[in-house]
Amino acid sequence: MATIGEIAPAIALLPLASFAVALASVVFAPRLLQKGGAIPGILATAGSLVLSVWAFVHVGGGEPIEQELLAWAAAPDSFELTLGVLIDPLAALMLVIVSLVAFLVHVFSLGYMNAEGETGLHRYYAELGLFTFSMLFFVMADNILMAFMFFELVGLCSFLLIGFWFREEAPASAAKKAFLVTRFGDYFFLVGVVGIFAAFGTGRFVGSEGFPHLAEEAIAEGHEILGMSPETGVMVLGLLVLGGVIGKSAQFPLHTWLPDAMEGPTTVSALIHAATMVAAGVYLVARMFGFYALSPTLLAIIALVGGFTALFAATMGVVKDEIKQVLAYSTISQYGYMMLGLGAGGYVAGTFHLMNHAFFKALLFLGAGSVIIATHHTHDMWKMGGLKEKLPVTYYTFLAGSLALAGIVPFSGFWSKDEILYESIVHGLGTDGGLGVLLLLAFAFGLLAVFFTGFYTFRMVALTFHGEPRTEVAEDAHGVGWSVKLPLIVLGVLATVAGLVNMAPLDVEYLHSWLDTTEEAGLLTSAHHYEEVLHDVAHVEAATLTPIATAAVSLGLALAGALAAWRLYGSDPQPHTDRLGSIKELVGNNYYQDEYQVWLAEGVTLPLSRAADTFDQVVVDGVVDGVSSVSLFSGRRIRRIQSGIVSNYVALLTAGLVVLLVTFAFMGGWF
Amino acid sequence: MIEALLAVTFVSSLVVFAAPDRVAGKLAALLSLAPLAGSLWLYTAFDGSGNALLPDGDLAFETMATWLSIGDLAVNWHVGLDGVSLPLVVLTTLLTTLAIVSAWTPIDERQSQFYGLVLFMEAALLGVFSALDFFLWFVFWEAVLVPMYFLIGVWGGPRRKYAAIKFFVYTNVASLLMFIGVIALVFALPVESFGLPEIAQSLRAGELGSLAGIQPGTLEVLAFFAIFVGFAVKVPVVPFHTWLPDAHVEAPTPASVLLAGVLLKMGTYALLRFNFTMMPGVAQDYVYLIAAVGVVSVIYGAMLALAQQDLKRIVAYSSVSSMGYVILGLVALTPFGLGGATFQMVSHGLISGLLFMTVGVIYNTTHTRMVGDMSGLADRMPFTVGVFVAGAFAYMGLPLMSGFAAEVFIFLGAFDAFAGAPWFTAAAMFGIVIVAGYLLFAMQRSLFGPFRLETDYEVGRAPLHDVVPLVVLVATIVLLGVFPELIFDMITDAVTALSGGVA
Q: Per 3-state DSSP, what percentage of chain B is helix, strand, and coil (rounded to 5)?
């Protein structure tokens, strides 16, 4: 009987098999799989889920899984590039999350795609399989080059799925934007990867041979990194990798692709936002937290970017009219919180929120998908209303997700968001110097965003489900099938109770001890190890503060936001945000972030390329043509040669060879 | 063995010349399977090690026979393969077969001459990659030009004459320059033959004397740059690249496939063999200049591609960009740099071949290549568009495809190769963003969105024999992307001795 340690790669290879089956069936047997590949996809992701749980249990026994998959490339006296599997507590947790969400999305797709008579389903399921495969291997990657490879593949799959309805302009454009913006971030990431190899000779994430530990030693011993002081070297490399994180996790200023990505099927949005593409960025920070924890500057930047993004995106969520747009901005904002948590040194808090968010955001997107099919593909919340009675399962599960998102006790999001805020204020107060001050600033951003989160969340709930139906489609909303309800119920339960695993204010810290499970194995990835590094190297100190205080303040703000939204939109909603006037104009246009990026691409880069093209034709090519027409051939002769017969060319060729031979002979002293 | 490969290919070309037009295409494809099978056999039976030109080199399939002598210098029939040349030999035979099949649809006149020329060119290309005597090598080198000249000039587009002449003049002037450079070296060295290993080892041993009053140091630099420019035209690198887009746009699809896929690699292969193997010291002295040429080619070539509207021009300019990476990898003189550069030669051959073929398939149906003339082709040609997307992402360096492996090897090899190298490498790497830009914009506008076509043709699915070569190429690209060691192992074995330049 094989052990999970041996067959761990199958966790990712099963969805690859479903990709292959779906792809083969579209070519060879388009009618064989009537469900368009859904069955292989469901079986494969179910298999991944079972194996992930198995791996989770195995790791829980205190022993991580490590296995080399492939000696990818090597050269004598140089780097060895390998692909390998590493499952430590963090990876095991993420594997379960990803395979669970992927499985539920596959099931939901039966109702969302198949039942709605979509075409191109083989392609859909093939891409979904590839997406799951890429993300699962990304999570299991044991070195940063392999992580980059699957990070990019995740980007490809997002491109393909966002552009699923390629016959329309908007999805094709959104897909391009998603890939291009994240590619811009990945450029820095790749430079960082190459730099890490050049500096440390390895890309391994863990252990005493891993690059985070080598960097720690370099700082301790004062060795230079790439000709820079070790502190600067770590900061530069960390910032470069962070470029990829900011792109994928849609942090300011590379967040602009994500709202457009709503053009993809809603099931895909659920997968992208909860468990794959966007999660990949933050997961990477958690994966190499031992590296980021070395540099106070890096921590401050991560926290500040995160805190700012959390607030910035939350304000934009307030004025959106489409249900998926609200959710998109909430995703940006929530990943901002995770970054804030990690930047504040709250490794457990950030990971905790990553988990909770995966459940409640998948739930909210699938809930929105349920609403969308029930209302015959309506996205505008102003055309909904009163759906509570028509879609009870959707309503109550969506409500659970919303309470989690807004951070209302005891739903999951409350516990993790509170822990993030707590970590940032105690470390902000306790740490000396710039890091402390910046953490407090980031904390202020994060705290303020709580109010907006509560507001936009309950504005969305009220507009969609409460009041009277405002249009005929809302009036006629039909029920949804079991394949839609089942995933909602599973996720609804998780969004409600998942937070109970780490109720820090009540001293319940199962997740914290889970992340310490394999401490004995020497991977140097335990929460405990990170706390030591933060304390010893980055000099992060915690002030004493009762956790109840921040919990009470953030809960109060969330409730205030939720109640305000309820008062304004609960029964007879009006477009109140119109009263904001020019502020609404500014926020509604997303602070003109898209405009300046489009201007950079189309107003700067494109004219520059045209100028280069003109320069090339007139100057570079012109010089050559000019020289040739003056010296080698006159214009008249060129015409003659061009209009000549084949013998002319042969003569030319012979002449060329004769010139060569004569030169040769002359130089060789034959004459 | 290599003689048999060359002879079979050459005889095949004669047979096809003599065959009637009606059957020439099928016959040529069939006959081209022989060199393909032969080269694959060479791959499995390969037992060489080390670099062909250096003392540690143990060549596979080597033959050496005295041929004639010029003055007191011997010209030998000397052929053999090492880890650098074998992958290029396989690339040549594979692409030739696929190019022949892809020609069945577009080539509708004078078929026997067309396919005969293609096979003749294949024989010459195999000679270029296996010859180890300068004189012999030069004969093959020049022999490649002739068929390509006719392929462009006879079967090309409206401005084919201009493009063919431009191609011919550029490459011939370049050949002359290179020839003078090499011969100057030969006469200033105490060598007894034109054997490339002898020349290389003598040069590396510092045995260069003076010639016509020019001191050895100056002579070596002058020769280096004469040879460098000669090959740079072929590659091509900026600013010697302007013949390439014209040649590509006018050339028929199968000729473009071979031009981008194999002919450009003659230039980079020769740069590796001559400049960076024989005179690494000069390369190191002028490392900033050469690296700058590479970086400028990458970025400038990509910017030019961004400005184009013709799909074929986009792919053509992007070749300039991709070849810039090769220059950077070569000048790094590290195992990963040199190995990555060689890997990129093979990888880019496959990927650019794939994209040119796909553009060709689209052109066969739509009779236009202009981005603005069409949109939403994915609706009518789902399979072809699927392959186009795969090829475009391969070009963008998507992991698990060969392009990523090649680029990341080069970046790893170059990043820490010389003082200031991180800046050059990071600048060149920005090419991966621009390439995504122009290919994604082109795809969005021509392949996606609602279907529209300015030219008035019925658009349907492409015939099977048009898409089979595409599938073979995609499969090969993925295979090499997942298992680069299939060839990278032998490549690094052959180039490692060059790393570090002169000790």
A: 75, 5, 20
Closest CA to A551 of A454, A426, A415, A453: A415
The secondary structure of residue A381, as a DSSP letter, is G
Measured N-to-C along each axis, helices B85-102 and B111-130 cross at an angle, to the nearest 10 degrees, of 170
Residue B59 has pLDDT above 90, yes or no: no
Type of residue numbered A369: G
Helices A646-668 and B134-155, interaxial angle, to 10°? 160
Q: Which of residues 416-435 of B touch A (CB under 8 A)?
A: 416, 422, 425-426, 429-430, 432-433
- Flag whether residue B146 sits within 8 Å of chain A, measured between CB atoms: yes
Per CB-CB distance under 8 Å, the chain B contacts of A148 are: 399
Q: What is the pLDDT of residues A241-257, one digit of tens each?
A: 999 999 998 898 888 88
Q: Write the pLDDT tens digit of every residue in A418-447.
A: 999 999 999 888 888 888 889 999 999 999
The residue behind tokens 């901005």 is A329
Note the residue count of chain B. 503
- Integer-rounded Cα radius of gyration of chain A: 28
Token pair belonging to B489: 């192992």
What's the predicted TM-score (pTM) here? 0.91
- Tokens 């969400």, located at residue: A101
Q: For residue B76, give the 3-state DSSP assignment.
A: strand
* ipTM above threshold 0.90: yes
Interchain CB contacts (distance < 8 Å): A and B: 190
**Inter-chain residue contact A149 with B399, CB threshold 8 Å:** yes
CB-based contact A176 B412, cutoff 8 Å: no
How confident is the model at residue A641, as a pLDDT? 45
A81 sits in the region (left: phi over 0; alpha: psi -120 to 50; else beta) called beta
Chain A partners within 8 Å of B335 (Cβ): 75-78
Whether B391 shows a pLDDT value over 90: the answer reads yes
| For range B75-98, the mean pLDDT | 93
For chain B, the structural domain boundaries read 286-503
- Answer whether residue B464 shows pLDDT above 90: no
